[in-house]
UniProtKB/TrEMBL annotation:
Keyword Signal in annotation: no
Domain Luciferase-like: from-to ranges: 13-321
Molecular function in Gene Ontology: oxidoreductase activity, acting on paired donors, with incorporation or reduction of molecular oxygen
The entry's keywords: Oxidoreductase
Pfam family, one: Bac_luciferase
Name of the protein: Unannotated protein
The keyword Lyase appears for this protein: no
NCBIfam families reported for this sequence: F420_Rv3520c
Length: 346
């Protein structure tokens, strides 16, 4: 199994930590480093910097937000990063949620499955060097004469990637969105993909793959998992708690949070909703206290060094090809976790 690092965005990791941990991952033989974005640090700038600081490890966007950029701008960024990294780039895309799409970008969160499908199709055409023409519900390229000056014509991207095909990963956990991953994506970046309850997300993935005449083996599953290695399981859980609190509390509204809904399907809705309510009331410490050990263990790898191999191995039977670990805790715990993961990888 491959193991990579998810180094997110500021303030979870400082710019210095992102660089130091990416260089460490490169040196220790880990497989990938992924950078994300929310409503602060962008992914493209940091990935460009890391491409110059690393030599071997793959770099990926986990995720670049679809409402942030026109699809052709994303295609240009992806090709540029692939060239700068000498063919080491993975393109991860996601819609985020309605709060970010509408509250930060001013883009309506409507028809998310159709929007994602069109976006991926345009990005692929552009990265492949095709002369770009597209007519969909959300994008029409070139712009029709009656909507502009009438001077637009199909263009072909001037730059070419190093890789013959830059892989596109999608982040999704809603059933229809996961089904679409199975239909159109090269890879999947799920959060809260549980070895104890794999069918809840696995069944729609398989359904989508079969609809497109594919199998699960055609989709690279890179599960994003908060990880902490500490002297005790309790200490490790304390290190990973803030990530679960953030996803349950901040990544969605009270009535529409995909992660709370997923926790409910896993049988831990009471803990997830109590955490969400405390977070939304401004009580982050209280929100963390509402998390049950069982919910933490479903969402994370919170463990001691001697148990790490077994926790990693649990993801193999559910089809995970790569664990994309979020190193959690203070700087010392993050460093210890990355080194432990590298030892497990070796």
């Amino acid at each position: 199994m491959r193991i990579g690092l998810f180094l997110a965005y500021w303030p979870w990791f400082t710019p210095e930590e992102q660089s130091e941990l990416a260089i460490l991952a490169d040196r220790l033989g880990l497989d990938s480093v992924w950078i994300s974005e929310a409503w602060g640090q962008d992914a493209v700038s940091v990935l460009g910097s890391l491409s110059a600081q690393t030599e071997r490890v793959r770099i990926g966007s986990g995720l670049m937000q679809i409402p942030a950029r026109q699809p052709t701008a994303t295609a240009m960024a992806a090709v540029t990063l692939d060239v700068l990294s000498k063919g080491r780039f993975n393109l991860g895309l996601g819609l985020s949620g309605p709060q970010v799409s509408e509250g930060w970008y001013g883009v309506a969160f409507d028809k998310p499955v159709t929007r994602t499908r069109e976006y991926v199709e345009i990005v692929r055409k552009a990265m492949a060097g095709d002369k770009l023409e597209f007519n969909g519900d959300f994008w029409t390229i070139p712009l029709p004469e009656d909507q502009g000056m009438g001077l637009g014509r199909p263009l072909r991207m001037l730059a070419r990637p190093v890789q013959e095909r830059i892989p596109i990963y999608l982040g999704a956990i809603g059933p229809r969105a996961v089904e679409q991953v199975g239909e159109i994506a090269d890879g999947w970046l799920p959060f809260m993909y549980s070895p104890e309850n794999p069918d809840i997300l696995g069944e729609p993935l398989l359904r989508g793959a079969e609809k497109a005449g594919r199998t699960i083996d055609d989709i690279d599953i890179a599960a994003v998992i908060p990880v902490a290695v500490a002297d005790t399981v309790e200490a490790a859980r304390e290190a990973t708690k803030p990530w679960i609190v953030f996803y349950l509390g901040a990544m969605g509204a009270k009535a529409k949070n995909f992660y709370v809904d997923l926790a409910d399907l896993y049988g831990h809705g009471e803990s997830a909703r109590a955490c969400q309510e405390a977070f939304l009331a401004g009580d982050r410490l209280g929100a963390a206290a509402k998390l049950s050990d069982e919910l933490i263990d479903i969402c994370t790898i919170s463990t001691t060094p001697d148990l790490l191999d077994g926790r990693i191995a649990a993801y193999e039977p559910i089809g995970v090809n790569e664990i994309v670990a979020i190193p959690c805790g203070d700087a010392e715990t993050k460093d210890r976790t990355v080194r432990a993961l590298a030892a497990a990888r070796a």
